[in-house]
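#struct-help
A.M.: can someone run this one for me? Single chain, 458 residues.
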Amino acid sequence: MVEPATAITPEPDAKPTSGRRAESQEEVAEAAGDDRKSRNLGILGRTPPFTLRQRRVFTIATTAGFFDQYDRALLSLALKQIQAGLKIAESHLGTMLSVIRLGYVLSLLLTPLADVFGRRRLLLYTVVGYTAFTALSAIAPGEKTFVVFQVLARAFAGAEAAVAVVILAEEVDAAHRGWAIGLLGGISGAGYGLAAIVFAFVNVIPFGWRGLYAIALVPLVLIIPLRRALPESARFEKEQSEGSKPSKVWEPLVQLYSAYPKRLMMMLSVMFLASMGGNAAGIMFPKFLQEAHGWSPGNVSSLFLFGGALSVMGSIAAGRLSDRFGRRVMGATFFFLAPLMTIWMYTAPGFSIVPVWILEVFFDIAGSTIMNAYSAEMFPTSYRSTAGSALVVAGTTGGAIGLFLEGVLFSLTGSHARSIRYLTVFWLIAPAIMWFFPETSGRELEEISPEAARPATV
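D.P.: on it. C-alpha cells below:
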C-alpha cells in the first residue's frame, strides 16, 4: 500500500533548526513582550523558552511521567525480592516478565480515546489507573494476582506516556520540540532515581518490596490540582471546532494503518527490534549484579541513583542534538552504540561494569527519546495519540518476545549474560532502518504530517 496522494513526505535532506536559531527566537520573543521564559533546572540544564501555557503543560506532563517511571523501575530493581516473596521459580521469570510487558499492548485500546475525547481527560484518567493498580500490586497474595495487577498498571502507564508526549509536542514550538521531549524524558527518568533511593531500604522498610509499591499512591494526591491546571491541546481544540476530529473510537486506528503505512511500518520495526534485543538486558541487570557480581541491594541502589542520574541525561542530549543535527542521524547513531555497550556490559569485569552501564543506558534512552519524538511528529493530529501508543505496543511486543527468547536461550546455555548478548543481534538491525526515516526536526507538525483524506467507509 502506498501513502495517500494528499500526504507530503518530508525531504530527507531537510535541514533542522539550529540551537542558535532557537536562542534568537527567545530573544525576539522577549523583546516583543512575550511571556516566554527559560528556567534553569540545575544539572538538567535549562528549559526551552516556554510561554505560561506551555510551561504548565510541561510541568504536569513531567510530574505524571516522574511517578510513572518510579512504578516501572520497581519491577526491575526489586525483582529478586519479589521472586523470593511470591516464591516464583527461576524458570518462570522470563515468562512472567513477558506477560507483564504485554500489558502495554492494552494501551492501544485506551489511547484512541485521546484522539476522540481529548488529550487532557485521558492523561488524568490514566494517571489514576496506573497508580491504583501499581498500589494494588503491594497486596498481591501470589504470582498470578501480581501479574494481573501489573498488566493493568502497564496498560494505563503506556497510554499515559504516549499522551504526555503528544500533548507536549502539540503545544511547544517546532524549533524546541526535540528539546522539550528530551527534557520530559530526563525529568521523568528521575522517578527511577526515587525508586533507587527507596530500594536501598527494601530490607528495613515495612513489608519490604510491598511497601515500595504502596508508595505509588502518592500521585493520587495530585489529581485534583492537575485537573484544574492542565489545558487541552490547542491543536485538538482546533480540530474539534472545525469538526474534523474522529467521532468514533475505532477511527484513529483505521486511519493510522491506512494513511501512512510506510512510516508506520518503519517506526514499529525499529522499536520492535530494539526492544527485542535490549529489554531483557535492562530488566535482568539488577539481578545480574547481585548474583554474578555479589552486589548488595544498597550497591545496586547507589549505582542506579548516581549512575542513572548521569545516564538519563541521554534524553536531554538527544533532544538538543536532534534539534540541531537532525532526528534521523542522531537516532541511528544512538541505537547503534547502545547494543555494543550492552555486549560489553555483560562481559566487563569488576567495577569496570559501572561506566559501561552508564553509557549503555545513556545511548538507549537517547535513541528511545528520538523515537518518541518521531511518533508524535510523523502522524496527523487526528490519530497522533494512537500512533504513540502503537510505538509502545511495538516496543512491548518486541520486549516480551525478547524476554521469552532469553528464557529459551537460558535453558540452552545456562547463562543469562550469554543469552542477553545473543539477543543484541536484533537491536543492531534497528539503526539501519532509521536511515530511511523522514527528517522532522524544526518543522511544523502540519507540514510533516498533513491530514490525509479519510476512508469513505469510516
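A.M.: thanks! The chain is about 70% helix and 0% strand.
D.P.: also worth noting: Residues 240 and 246 are 9 Å apart (CA to CA).
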